[in-house]
From TrEMBL:
This is CBM20 domain-containing protein. Residues 31-50 are annotated as: Disordered. PROSITE patterns: CBM20. It comes from the Eukaryota. The keyword Hydrolase applies. It comes from Cryptomonas curvata.
Length: 295
């Protein structure tokens, strides 16, 4: 059914057929150009919907003869009143206009993340304009619908060197598959440092960035830090590790660095053991100094 500019149809099929499912749109007897679309439905966990008798449903959004742009970020929110939005220097992202123009996001179906685990991402999809855009800057924002407040990322703007337009991709590499361009993101770091306590001796949280963060960690009893940022990540996020080392030294906090590439499952699997060894060493060092180790 449908009408106007939006059409939809429901097709039932066995889950084992999803990975090889191909399709194509036909309007008034006219086939869209390019090769068959290759479904990505197998990458997400179908969501049970009451309208379809609680069967699992996977949504395949598409744009006729166009390109769909999709932004995804994995960042669980604990407050039911909070939701993720995105804004930036692109028509589909609101062109940095006030909050009413931010691109809203919704939780997608469970999918396999870049680290190999399952999770639900905040997603925003919209049709690409005809023209390409270069050097696009953008940021994610957490909106609280109850308090009417906005929490911005406390980092330099995210940057993309190129976002394709519908005209340049017609018949190109996107045309023969899902006609979709995607950007996966993560690591939403707020201005105020927050970390989770994992008994009996661990804290887990984003990377500290300033003297106030280190003071907060010291007050919580932290004796050691395992930093997993790569040098490239520190440079992109403008984290001065020499300064942070000095701040840690002044606070009596021992620093260990175990660089692990963001959202790279193979690198995580290969290097996580070094992180565990670093935690063990920091705990033993604190105990040897007569302190209760907390890392």
């Amino acid at each position: 059914g449908g009408g106007g500019e939006r059409w939809e149809a429901v097709v039932r099929m066995p889950s084992e057929d999803l990975a090889g499912f191909k399709y194509k749109f036909v309007a008034d007897g006219h086939h869209e150009s390019g090769g068959d679309r290759h479904s990505d439905a197998a990458q997400t966990e179908p969501q049970a919907e009451e309208e379809f008798g609680w069967e699992g449903v996977t949504t395949l959004e598409s744009v006729w003869e166009g390109l769909l742009l999709r932004f995804l970020i994995f960042h669980p929110l604990s407050d039911a009143d909070e939701r993720m939005v995105i804004t930036g220097g692109h028509p589909g992202l609101g062109n940095w206009q006030p909050v009413e123009s931010f691109r809203e996001m919704g939780l997608g179906g469970e999918r396999t993340l870049l680290t190999g685990v399952r999770g639900r991402c905040w997603e925003a999809s919209f049709p690409a304009p005809a023209e390409d855009y270069r050097d696009v800057q953008y940021r994610y924002v957490i909106l609280n619908t109850r308090t009417k407040t906005a929490l911005w990322e406390n980092e330099p703007n995210r940057r993309l060197g190129f976002i394709p337009g519908a005209a340049s991709t017609a018949g190109g590499k996107h045309a023969g598959r899902t006609r979709e361009w995607r950007q996966f993101d993560g690591n939403f770091v707020a201005k105020e440092l927050k970390f989770d306590w994992v008994p009996p001796c661990l804290f887990v949280g984003p990377y500290p960035q300033c003297a106030e963060d280190v003071a907060k960690m010291k007050a919580a009893g932290v004796t050691g830090v395992v930093n997993v940022q790569t040098d490239k990540d520190c440079m992109q996020r403008m984290v001065n590790m020499d300064m942070m080392q000095q701040l840690y030294n002044a606070a009596g906090i021992e620093l260990a660095r175990v660089p692990i590439e963001d959202f790279h499952g193979a690198d995580l699997a290969a290097r996580v053991k070094f992180g565990a060894h670093a935690v063990d060493r920091l705990m033993r060092n604190a105990g040897g100094a007569g302190r209760e180790g907390k890392v």
